[in-house]
Amino acid sequence: MPFQKGHKLGAKKLLKRPLDKEAIAFKGYVGQKEKLKAVPDWQERLREYVDSLISDLPKNE
Q1: Which of the two residues, 2 and 55, has the higher pLDDT score?
Q2: Cβ atoms within 10 A of the Cβ of 37, count?
Q3: With left for phi above 0 and alpha for psi between -120 and 50, is residue 37 left, alpha or beta?
Q4: Helical H runs in the chain?
Q5: pTM for this one?
Q6: If we measure between CA atoms, which residue out of 3, 13, 7 comes closest to residue 44?
Q7: What's the confidence (pLDDT) of residue 16?
Q8: What pLDDT is attached to residue 11?
Q9: Rounded-to-integer distance, Cα 43 and Cα 21, Å
Q10: 42 with 36: CB under 8 angstroms?
């Protein structure tokens, strides 16, 4: 039996900040996708790395 719309059951991951509706995508090297999926909490760690990468940019004033 499928869930009814607006159901209260199910797991929802609590994140520090809301996610964008559009995905960030890039092509990796052969074999990286499978290895990345084996890393625990890889998505959140990658988001934090992207933030640090952006913060390293020089400020345009």
Answers
A1: 55
A2: 9
A3: alpha
A4: 32-37, 42-55
A5: 0.67
A6: 13
A7: 80
A8: 65
A9: 15
A10: yes
The label of the residue with tokens 């345009």 reads 60
Residues with Cβ within 8 Å of 39's Cβ and at least 6 positions away in sequence, in order, are 45
Model pLDDT for residues 16-61, shown as the tens digit of each residue: 888 899 999 999 999 999 999 999 999 999 999 999 999 988 877 5
pLDDT band for position 10 (50/70/90)? low
CA distance 51 to 24: 13
Question: What tokens were used for 23?
Answer: 């995905």
Residue type, 44: E
CA angle 32–33–35, rounded 5-degree value: 65
Q: State how far the Cα of 46 lies from the Cα of 32, in Å rounded to an integer.
A: 13
